[in-house]
Amino acid sequence: MNREIRHVPVLLKDVLEVLSPQPGQVIVDCTLSLCGHSAALLECVGETRRIVGIDFDPGNIALARAALQKISGRVGNFDLIHNNFAALPMVLE
Q1: Residue 58 lies inside a defined structural domain of this protein
Q2: How many other CB atoms sit within 10 Å of the CB of residue 60?
Q3: What is the CATH number for 35?
Q4: Which terminus of the chain is more exposed, N or C, with fewer CB under 10 A?
């Protein structure tokens, strides 16, 4: 059975308001999951946008990659890393 996966990010409006994403920024999502927040952030930060997403579940990485490609139209706008968010310093190097 093929079911569509639906994800509703928690407190999305508040996250967008607090982060106030601007064009050209690099945004790091340390708990990528199904990319609800990253998808919304990617739409906010313009053509020079860049999202770095980290998740320990490789299944989430695959689903997020497909969803973000639909938004960005190209792969180069985001990097998705299979790791624990504790590895953030190494990931950002």
Answers
A1: yes
A2: 19
A3: 3.40.50.150
A4: N
